[in-house]
From TrEMBL:
Similarity section: Belongs to the myoviridae tail sheath protein family.
A Pfam family of this chain: Phage_sheath_1C
Top-level division of the source organism's lineage: Bacteria
All copies of domain Tail sheath protein C-terminal, residue ranges: 584-688
TM regions (residue ranges): none
PANTHER family: PHAGE TAIL SHEATH PROTEIN, PTHR35861
Xref: InterPro entries: Tail_sheath_C, Tail_sheath_structural
UniProt name for this protein: Tail sheath protein C-terminal domain-containing protein
C-alpha cells in the first residue's frame, strides 16, 4: 500500500505485479456410488489407493459390482477416488427386506448400584461435526473395554475400542483405538464425547437418557471389586498393615459364560496358596498383594477341570490395584480375564467366592460390578442387496438418485470439491422397468452442472451387436456430451470365487484408463489405441470384427477389442453425443474433457476478478493471466496450430465488455482454442509406379 512520507529519507513501496497464476485442476478424480461391505452411509470419502479402499470399505464384496470397479480403477492407473456407499432403507413387505443399519451398544453408568444408560455407542464417525453411521455386519465385530485404572479412579476412565476378526475358533484384533483419562464432565479438555468423536474412525458417542453428574462413570468391563475397608477384617487394620496369607487364601474363581450361572461354567477353582508359609510370605504391600493374586489366579488355569482351549481365560488374567488407600480413593481390585481362549467369548465373567472373598472386596455382597470382558456392539446389518433365491438386485433406484436436500445418493457429492468421472456400476442391475435410465438421467443433469463426465455401464447379457444397437435406441435420452458408453462388458479373475471369471461393467476399468492416459500424455490425448491396454482384464464378453466395430462406432458407442500381442484394448473415443448423424462439436471424449478441464480451471482461477474495478487495467490483467494459462497448454501440445495465434485466443476489452455491461457489473472474457482431435481413421493410399521401357 502507499507509504506516508514523514521524514527525509528513502522509502520502499511494494507494487503488485498483477500476475495471478491459474493452476490447472485435476482431470481424473473418479466418484463411485454403490453398495459395499462397510463404509459411511451417504457420505463421500476420499480413497487414494487400494489399501485405503480396503480399510475404509472392506475391499471386494461379491454382491457389489462397484467394489470390483474401484479395484479395476486403481489397477488401471487411477490414483484418487471418492466413494459413496448406499443401501436398502428396509421394507416391511411382503417380502420383508432388511434395512442397512449400524451396530450399536450402550455404556451404563455407575450410580448407586443401578445401571442407567450413560452413553450410546454407534459404529461410524463424526464428519464436519455431524455423526455419520458406518452400517453393516462388520460393526458386530467391534468390542469395547472400559477401565478405571487412570490418574483419578473415581472421576475418569479409559476406553478401548477393538475391531476383531473371527476365523474358526480364533479371534484376532485387526484394529484398536485407546482413549485414556476421559471424563463425563462437560467443557473439559478430556470430555469423553469430544475426545472420542474427534479422533475415532470406528465409533461415535452420544449422550443417552437423563443427565448425570460428573462422577458418573461407565461401568468397567471385567470384575470390579468393592472398597477395601482400611480399618476392618485384617490384624491391625489396612491402615497400618497388609493382610497375611492366612487372611487372603480362602478364595476361588468361576469362569461364568454370561450374566447367569449355567452348566457350561468352569469352576469353582480354589486358588492355591498352600506353598506359602506365613509370615515370611505375607504381602509386603498392597501392590505385592495384587501381584500375588494375579500369579495365583493364572496358576489356576492348570486345574484339571479347565479345558485346554479355555485355559487362556485364567492364564492371561490381569489384576490391577486401583486407588491409593485414602478415604477419597480406597483400594479396589479390577480383574480381567485373558483373551486368548479359542473360541473367545467376550461375555465371560470371573466370579469370586470363598471364605475370604470379602477381604478382596470380591464376594457377592461387596463386588461393585460383575461385567463381561468386552461389550460387543450388535444389530449391524448390510441390508437387502441380492435376493438369495433369484439373484435379483434389491437396492432401490431411489438409493442411487438420493435427495438433494439431504445430500444423499448422487447428491452426497455436494460435499466434494472436485470430481471428474462418475461411475455407478450397479445401476444396470436395477430390475424395475426404466429404473436404470431414470437414475442415469438424473446423474447426467448433475455431472453436467459439475463439469464432469459419466461413464454409462451396460447390463449383463448385452453381448451381441444387435442388442447393443437396441440398447442405444432405448437409452437415446442419455446421448449427451458428458456421457460415454463402452461395449462389451469385461471378464476379470474373481479372487473371491477361486479366480473364476466374473463379468464386470467396464466403467471402473475405463476410468482408470482415462487417469493413466491423462498422467502419461495429457487429458487431450484420446484414451484409446494400442497404448490403451485394459489391465487385469482376462477376456471380453464379445469378440468383434472390424465390420462389427464399424456398426457401433458411428452410433457413438466405444468398442473394446482384442488384438494379438496387445491383448484387450480400448478401441473408441467418442462421447454418446458422438454419433455421426448428430454432428456434434463434442464428438470425441478428449475434446469434451479438455473443454471441461479448461472451464473448471478458469472458473477457479478467475475468482479474484469479482468486485475488481471493471475497466482496462482489469481487462489487461485478465488477458495476461488467462493468456499465460492457455499458452502453457499450447506449449504442452494441447492445441492444434504451429503458432499461439493459431492455437488459442483470449479477448477481454471494450469490444467484449460494453458500457451497458459495465453498468450491469459484467465483464466478458472470450476464450477460444483449437482442440486436438484423434486420428480415428488412417487411410493408406498405395499405387504402382509405371516405368517406361528402356529403348
Amino acid at each position: 500500500m502507499p507509504v506516508n512520507p514523514t521524514y527525509p529519507g528513502v522509502y520502499i513501496e511494494e507494487i503488485a505485479s498483477g500476475v495471478r497464476p491459474i493452476r490447472g485442476v485435476a482431470t481424473s478424480i473418479a466418484a463411485f456410488i454403490g453398495t459395499f461391505s462397510r463404509g459411511l452411509h451417504n457420505e463421500a470419502v476420499r480413497v487414494q489407493s487400494l489399501s485405503d479402499f480396503e480399510r475404509e470399505y472392506g475391499g471386494l464384496n461379491r454382491d457389489s459390482e462397484a467394489s470390483y470397479a474401484v479395484q479395476q480403477f486403481f489397477l488401471n492407473g487411477g490414483s484418487e477416488a471418492w466413494i459413496i456407499r448406499i443401501g436398502h432403507p428396509g421394507d416391511a413387505g411382503p417380502p420383508v427386506l432388511a434395512a442397512l443399519s449400524p451396530a450399536t451398544a450402550g455404556l451404563n453408568a455407575v450410580v448407586g448400584g443401578g445401571a442407567p444408560d450413560l452413553l450410546a455407542v454407534t459404529a461410524g464417525r463424526v464428519i464436519r461435526d455431524e455423526p455419520a453411521d458406518n452400517p453393516g455386519t462388520w460393526g458386530n465385530n467391534l468390542r469395547l473395554e472400559v477401565s478405571h485404572s487412570t490418574s483419578a479412579n473415581d472421576t475418569t476412565f479409559s476406553l478401548s475400542i477393538k475391531e476383531v476378526q473371527v476365523s474358526g475358533d480364533r479371534t484376532t484384533v485387526v484394529r484398536e483405538e485407546v482413549y485414556r483419562n476421559l471424563t463425563m464432565q462437560p467443557n473439559e479438555a478430556n470430555t469423553a464425547i469430544d475426545v472420542v468423536n474427534a479422533a475415532s474412525t470406528l465409533i461415535y458417542l452420544s449422550p443417552d437418557a437423563a443427565p448425570v453428574t460428573d462422577t458418573d462413570l461407565p461401568h468397567t468391563t471385567g470384575t470390579l471389586g468393592g472398597d477395601l475397608d482400611p480399618a476392618a477384617d485384617f490384624a491391625g487394620g489396612l491402615a497400618t498393615s497388609t493382610p497375611t496369607v492366612a487372611e487372603i487364601s480362602g478364595i476361588d474363581v468361576t469362569v461364568q459364560f454370561g450374566p447367569a450361572a449355567t452348566a457350561d461354567d468352569i469352576g469353582p477353582i480354589a486358588l492355591d496358596f498352600s506353598d506359602l508359609a506365613s509370615p515370611a510370605d505375607d504381602p509386603v504391600s498392597f501392590a505385592a498383594w495384587a501381584g500375588l493374586f494375579q500369579e495365583r489366579l493364572r496358576r489356576a488355569a492348570t486345574d484339571a477341570t479347565v479345558p485346554v482351549n479355555m485355559r487362556a481365560y485364567l492364564a492371561g488374567a490381569v489384576v490391577t490395584l486401583l486407588g491409593d488407600g485414602s478415604a477419597a480413593e480406597p483400594w479396589r481390585f479390577h480383574v480381567r480375564a485373558g483373551q486368548g481362549a479359542q473360541p473367545f467369548d467376550p461375555d465371560v465373567r470371573l466370579v469370586f467366592a470363598g471364605a475370604n472373598a470379602d477381604h478382596y472386596g470380591l464376594d457377592g455382597g461387596s463386588v461393585l460390578h460383575l461385567g463381561p470382558q468386552q461389550i460387543a456392539l450388535s444389530g449391524g446389518n448390510d441390508g437387502a442387496v441380492v435376493d438369495a433365491a433369484s439373484g435379483a438386485y434389491l437396492v432401490p433406484a431411489a438409493a442411487f438418485a438420493g435427495n438433494a436436500g439431504a445430500r444423499s445418493g448422487i447428491y452426497a457429492l455436494e460435499d466434494v470439491d472436485l470430481f471428474n468421472i462418475l461411475c455407478m456400476p450397479d445401476v444396470p442391475r436395477l430390475t424395475d422397468a426404466g429404473a436404470p435410465l431414470a437414475v442415469y438421467s438424473e446423474a447426467l443433469n448433475y455431472v453436467t452442472e459439475r463439469r464432469a463426465m459419466m461413464i454409462v455401464d451396460i447390463p449383463l447379457g448385452l453381448n451381441r451387436i444387435d442388442r447393443m444397437e437396441t440398447w442405444l435406441v432405448e437409452n437415446a435420452g442419455l446421448r449427451a456430451p458428458n456421457t460415454a458408453v463402452y461395449f462389451p462388458r469385461t471378464f476379470i479373475a474373481d479372487r473371491l470365487n477361486r479366480n473364476r471369471l466374473r463379468s464386470l461393467a467396464s466403467s471402473g476399468t475405463v476410468a482408470g484408463l482415462w487417469a493413466r492416459t491423462d498422467a502419461a500424455r495429457g487429458v487431450w490425448k484420446a484414451p484409446a489405441g494400442t497404448e490403451a491396454r485394459l489391465r487385469a482384464v482376462q477376456d471380453l464378453a464379445y469378440v468383434m470384427t472390424d465390420a462389427e466395430n464399424g456398426v457401433l462406432n458411428p452410433l457413438g458407442a466405444n468398442c473394446m477389442r482384442q488384438f494379438p500381442i496387445y491383448g484387450s484394448v480400448c478401441w473408441g473415443a467418442r462421447t454418446m453425443d458422438g454419433a455421426d448423424q448428430i454432428a456434434s462439436d463434442w464428438k470425441y471424449v478428449p475434446v469434451r474433457r479438455t473443454t471441461l478441464f479448461i472451464e473448471e480451471s478458469l472458473y477457479r482461477g478467475t475468482q479474484w476478478v469479482v468486485f475488481e474495478p471493471n475497466d482496462e487495467p482489469l481487462w489487461a490483467q485478465i488477458r495476461l493471466n488467462v493468456g499465460a494459462f492457455m499458452h502453457d497448454l499450447f506449449r504442452k501440445g494441447a492445441f492444434q496450430g504451429a503458432m499461439p495465434s493459431d492455437a488459442y485466443l483470449v479477448k477481454c476489452d471494450a469490444e467484449t465488455t460494453t458500457q451497458s455491461d459495465i453498468d450491469n457489473g459484467i465483464v466478458n472474457v472470450e476464450v477460444g482454442f483449437a482442440p486436438l482431435k484423434p486420428a480415428e481413421f488412417v487411410i493408406l493410399k498405395i499405387q504402382q509406379i509405371a516405368r517406361r521401357a528402356e529403348s
